[in-house]
Amino acid sequence: MAPRDDDELEELLSRPAPAVVDTLRRVPGHFIVLGAGGKMGPSLTAMVKRALQQAGDDREVIAVSRFSSADAVSRLERAGVRVVRAELGDRDAIASLPDAANVIYMAGQKFGTRDLPSLTWAVNTLVPAMVAERYEASRIVAFSTGNVYPLSPASTSGSREGDPLTPVGEYANSCVGRERVLEHVSRTRGTPIAIIRLNYAVDLRYGVLVDIAHRVASGDAVRLDMGYVNVIWQGDANAQAIRALELAASPPFVVNITGPDRLSVRDAATRLGELLGATPKFEGHEAPDALLSDTSLAQSVFGAPTMSTATLIEWVASWVARGGTRLDKATKFEVRDGRY
To answer: What DSSP assignment string belongs to 210-242?
Structure first.
């Protein structure tokens, strides 16, 4: 059943599957999530804590961020998470963070790159390098993005983990930089790391499907330039990222995390229009290539996502039709030149 409000949504996004509970039973030590105040951070952090509680385990879970949202802080504290406010761009702040055997690194910058690319490079390369050095004795799961790949022919399943990284634009290249500095620390210091190439997670308040649904509902045109996308329910993305702790290795284990479907933007808009009682308008035409990721590896180690794309579209339509909360964080999935 589709969630009806933010509380029900947060409960679902942070509900741990049995496989998450089993993984954390096997992974020793405390947990720290860096960049926990972003779109995915609060629900992922809460999932870690809930999984430990289900296992009867009182190990500590620490959430670190600047935390612009008081609601996120309140939710995490009620869940039993220790909240630490820190600026991850400050070397002294990183040095003073609590020790933890398990690190989930979620910080990064995408939007604003066009206007100030130097800041994006600093956030996406210098900060993870400092974090990896601080936690060189820990196990690290680090979030990256499918944008590190070039556009793939739309007739294929997309890029695989071993494909060359020749992305488009400063943001995507800075993300390759993030992966390379993490790989360097892993190779030189033996730090076990897992790198998560994610695109695109959908929480009913934001995501590619939410962007499309609001355009359809408001009568705005849906651009078709990026005619195909991958999407995954954020709860599934949270679960797979947490389970990757057990797969961290030196050199790093790298995995694409997204849904297995090559979703047509036109088809998604049409179905959302049917559910919302609106006729979608379109602009442009589908290009012969798109940002797509092959998930064969993820499915072999994690299994298929629990949420189907069809159900996710229905949930998004139901949420938008009811006037559910929307985060002001457009994905800009239609951008093809890498300028965000």
So the answer is: HHHHHHHHHTPEEE-SS-EE--EEHHHHHHHHH
Would residue 115 count as lying in a domain? Answer: yes
Give CA separation, 132 vs 23, 110, 217, in Å.
Answer: 22, 20, 44
CATH number for the domain harbouring residue 180: 3.40.50.720
Domain of 170, in residue numbers? 6-206+231-259+293-301
Start-to-end CA span in the chain (Å): 35
pLDDT at residue 326 in the model: 95
- Give residues with Cβ within 8 angstroms of 110, minimum separation 6: 120, 145, 171, 340
Domain count of the fold of the chain: 1
Q: Which residue has the tokens 């500590």?
A: 60
Q: Distance between CA 275 and CA 314 in Å, rounded?
A: 7
Q: How far apart are CA 170 and CA 180, in angstroms?
A: 15
- pLDDT tens track for 278-298: 999 999 999 999 999 999 999
Best CA proximity match to 260, nearest among 210, 313, 207, 297: 297
Percent of the chain with pLDDT over 70: 100
Average pLDDT for the chain = 96
